[in-house]
Write a structure and sequence with these properties.
membrane, single chain, transmembrane, mainly alpha, 73 residues
């Protein structure tokens, strides 16, 4: 997740530095910043929901221990 955010930040800088006017630079930076925040927030929310779903699934299934798997032959 952090790698994607860093790559997006680098892309923001390169696009903004190649812009011709200050107004265009501000518009591009604003748009890309909003996109970056939404993308990172979405990734965090997806990770939290997957973690909650995984916790719920593991809580529903009883933990069974197979005696044959613990023995060493």
């Amino acid at each position: 997740m952090n790698g994607q955010c860093i790559a997006t930040t680098q892309a923001m800088y390169s696009v903004a530095s190649s812009a011709h006017s200050l107004e265009t630079t501000v518009s591009v930076l604003t748009g890309l910043t909003v996109f970056l925040v939404l993308a990172c927030a979405g990734a965090v929310l997806v990770a939290l929901r997957l973690g909650a779903a995984l916790k719920r699934l593991t809580a529903q299934q009883p933990h069974t221990v197979h005696p044959t798997s613990e023995r060493e032959f």
